[in-house]
């Protein structure tokens, strides 16, 4: 764990989750938080995103807040540098992706989402639960019905499964699927829940933390630079645990809080805005 003096001595980069951290259930970032992000960047901090969302899913947010470093997307599977317009991705091997998708498409009461390396967003069906979000973020998903359609199109970087209901039967089939995958495809996939009803699969070894390492390497950051990671869900555990300063939102799941060095206010109470203000205020106090 770093001390405050480390923030003064070294460059500091803050990686923030989006849903449940920057934006609440309304999917709208507060004006207070927008202002604090601008101020903390003006104070010399580096600020960027580490999210499960894809490239299209953060475009509206990026029109509201400044980011200084490459963005970690798709839970670390895709990293994009807006400054140089370059990207880096880790795909799921075709044979593994084919087996995974074939099994997922047999499940009931779920929607399967797929992100490919060319930034195309695919869905197995349109649902009332997902359509409003897709419209607001202008995701423009393409439909698919067979796994082979995707394998022949482009490298697959992330596969998501949205549970359309929270019944025991639906959760049981997910549990049985995960047991089967761990038994038949050991050490091939990394999976995590980014919300209670949304399960995501990436290649083994891929997480937001691995994406942060790629993001840092694209800008040749010094090894002594301080990394701060802020999150709230299970897909944030690795980055919160391994960052120099790990921060859990007040609304975070217990696993994130246990991994964190600090716990701040909830997303509904502008917890991130207050945290950024405290960082900036301490910097200003030292140099005033």
Quick overview of this protein structure:
Helices cover 35% and strands 23% of the residues. With 288 residues, it is of the alpha/beta class.
Task: Summarize the structure in words.
One of its GO terms (cellular component) is cytosol. InterPro entries: Cof, HAD-like_sf, HAD-SF_hydro_IIB, HAD_sf. This is Cof-type HAD-IIB family hydrolase. The protein has 288 residues and is of the alpha/beta class. The chain folds into 2 domains: 4-89 and 207-287, Rossmann fold; 94-203, Hypothetical Protein, Haloacid Dehalogenase-like Hydrolase, Chain: A, domain 2. 35% of the residues lie in helices and 23% in strands. It has a 6-stranded mixed beta sheet, with helices on one face. It has a 5-stranded parallel beta sheet with strand order 2-1-12-13-14. Helix 2 (31-42) packs parallel to helix 11 (271-287). The mean pLDDT is 89.
How are the SSEs placed, and which strands pair?
Elements: H1 4-9, E1 12-16, H2 31-42, E2 46-49, H3 59-62, E3 71-73, E4 78-81, E5 86-89, H4 94-104, E6 110-116, E7 121-123, H5 131-136, E8 142-143, H6 147-151, E9 156-163, H7 168-184, E10 189-195, E11 198-203, H8 208-218, E12 226-231, H9 237-242, E13 245-248, H10 254-259, E14 262-263, H11 271-287
Parallel strand pairs: 1-2, 1-12, 7-8, 12-13, 13-14
Antiparallel strand pairs: 3-4, 4-5, 6-7, 6-9, 9-11, 10-11
GO molecular function: magnesium ion binding; phosphatase activity
Pfam family, one: Hydrolase_3
Organism: Alicyclobacillus mengziensis
């Amino acid at each position: 764990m770093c001390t405050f003096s480390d923030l003064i001595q070294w460059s500091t980069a803050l990686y923030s989750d989006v849903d449940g951290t920057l934006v609440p259930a309304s999917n709208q970032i507060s004006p207070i938080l927008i202002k604090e992000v601008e101020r903390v960047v003006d104070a010399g901090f580096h600020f960027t995103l580490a999210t499960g969302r894809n490239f299209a899913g953060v475009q509206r947010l990026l029109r509201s807040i400044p980011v200084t470093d490459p963005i970690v997307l798709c839970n670390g599977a895709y990293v994009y540098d807006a400054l140089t317009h370059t990207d880096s991705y880790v795909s799921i091997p075709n044979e593994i992706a084919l087996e995974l998708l074939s099994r997922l498409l047999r499940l009931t009461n779920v929607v399967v989402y797929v992100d490919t390396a060319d930034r195309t967003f695919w869905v197995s069906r349109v649902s009332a639960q997902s359509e409003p979000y897709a419209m607001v973020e202008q995701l423009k998903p393409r439909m698919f019905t067979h796994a082979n359609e995707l394998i022949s199109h482009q490298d697959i970087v992330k596969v998501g499964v949205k549970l359309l209901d929270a019944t025991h039967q639906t959760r049981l089939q997910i549990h049985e699927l995960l047991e089967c995958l761990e038994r038949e495809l050991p050490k091939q996939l990394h999976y995590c829940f980014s919300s209670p009803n949304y399960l995501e699969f990436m290649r083994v070894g891929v997480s937001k933390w691995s994406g942060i390492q790629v993001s840092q390497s694209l800008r040749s950051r010094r090894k002594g630079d301080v990394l701060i990671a802020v999150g709230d869900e299970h897909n944030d555990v690795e980055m919160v645990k391994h960052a120099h300063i790990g921060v859990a939102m007040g609304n975070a799941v217990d696993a994130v809080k246990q991994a964190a060095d600090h716990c701040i206010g909830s997303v509904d109470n502008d917890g991130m805005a207050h945290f950024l203000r405290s960082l900036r205020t301490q910097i200003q106090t030292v140099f005033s």
